[in-house]
Amino acid sequence: xxxxxxxxxxxxxxxxxxxxxxxxxxxxxxxxxxxxxxxxxxxxxxxxxxxxxxxxxxxxxxxxxxxxxxxxxxxxxxxxxxxxxxxxxxxxxxxxxxxxxxxxxxxxxxxxxxxxxxxxxxxxxxxxxxxxxxxxxxxxxxxxxxxxxxxxxxxxxxxxxxxxxxxxxxxxxxxxxxxxxxxxxxxxxxxxxxxxxxxxxxxxxxxxxxxxxxxxxxxxxxxxxxxxxxxxxxxxxxxxxxxxxxxxxxxxxxxxxxxxxxxxxxxxxxxxxxxxxxxxxxxxxxxxxxxxxxxxxxxxxxxxxxxxxxxxxxxxxxxxxxxxxxxxxxxxxxxxxxxxxxxxxxxxxxxxxxxxxxxxxxxxxxxxxxxxxxxxxxxxxxxxxxxxxxxxxxxxxxxxxxxxxxxxxxxxxxxxxxxxxxxxxxxxxxxxxxxxxxxxxxxxxxxxxxxxxxxxxxxxxxxxxxxxxxxxxxxxxxxxxxxxxxxxxxxxxxxxxxxxxxxxxxxxx
Length: 509
Description:
- There is one protein chain.
- This protein is an alpha+beta fold.
- A 5-stranded antiparallel β-sheet has the order 2-1-5-4-3. A 5-stranded mixed β-sheet has the order 7-9-10-12-11.
- α8 packs antiparallel against α9.
- The protein folds into 3 domains: 22-205, Beta-Lactamase (2-Layer Sandwich), CATH 3.30.450; 260-350, Signal transduction histidine kinase, dimerisation/phosphotransfer (DHp) domain (Helix Hairpins, Orthogonal Bundle); 352-509, Histidine kinase-like ATPase, C-terminal domain (Heat Shock Protein 90), CATH 3.30.565.10.
- The protein is 51% helix and 15% strand.
- A hairpin with a 5-residue loop joins β3 (160-164) and β4.
């Protein structure tokens, strides 16, 4: 039988028990992907900010240099340009209105050298490949490529910008006008290698973060495996043991702390196993009861048949033949009731419930009984309710079977001069049907036993074997299938007999 409260260690969820499996799986996978994608866009944004700052800085420096050169002579300007070039690491050039270079900080030698990418190590090639991959992912615009220092006739006045060198470093340039005297234009070009260095250093730090997140993702995957795969394995093992049928007590974990799909599956499987075990136990008990009940008439038949072989007197043979007929009738009635009882659940499972007026159903049933009523049996009195006040949802044929069984039971206990009373009324949220008889009544300690299979407690003057003992058991099975209840209760003080009451949920019309 399934356990109703067991939860193995490692299956309990504390902080994530309310999250569905879909949410947890998405969280693990989306978090790592989102961080990776976010790191790409962050690096692109970080590089863009650095470039913008350096371009703005170069434009400001160009304006300051041009302002300082306004009142200098040609010789002073050349000396000043050379000094500024050494201090800033930039190439500073000054051209006149005819496009001739009148001052160049590289006159005494360059202040920086561009690197040929073909001569760099493989690590640098990998780094450049990563740069290009990130630009492709973020769909960065294609930058202008530096192919050489621009001649003076291509200098825009008061311009600024940047170019990408072959080794993926940035060439920052800016121009500014020198206002005094003859119009001149100043241009600065600097190889800002530190931008690439800063970006790659930031990328390295992000790499560590991504590696850490990947490790966390692996740990979360292991967590999911523990909270999903392990409970499923436990449930599968329990299901296999149930299927094998070797263990009578199968502990199916219910996982009460989990409100996700795994928890619902565990509780459903546990309840199903519990119900299956109850059904198996009921089937075994039913089979044992059937075997016991059939043995009695079979034993009687066997004895009567043996007697017919040896008895020669006509009157004794006639008695034996009557016994055989009665036993055959007993067997036929018993097998019919057993067959009906075993098929009730299947019939009700296929039946589509419809509105039923219990008052009208009972009235029609009593009219049909009039033609086959034994004149020596008790009378039946019916307190009919108002039309439409005792409506239920159910199967009219099966509910008629309940009424028939209750009336047959009441009539069998009532004396011929007695009265069987049946009533149907609405009481709050239920329709209540009562059947009273004038028989000896039911002891309080036997009021539950009368609904058990093959229970029989007959009057002393009634022949044995006329009843199978299944009528009330069939009635309870049908009532329970209609979400109702049935019980035996005491009648009002001073009244003799028994009262059977069953209740069904009312149908609001």
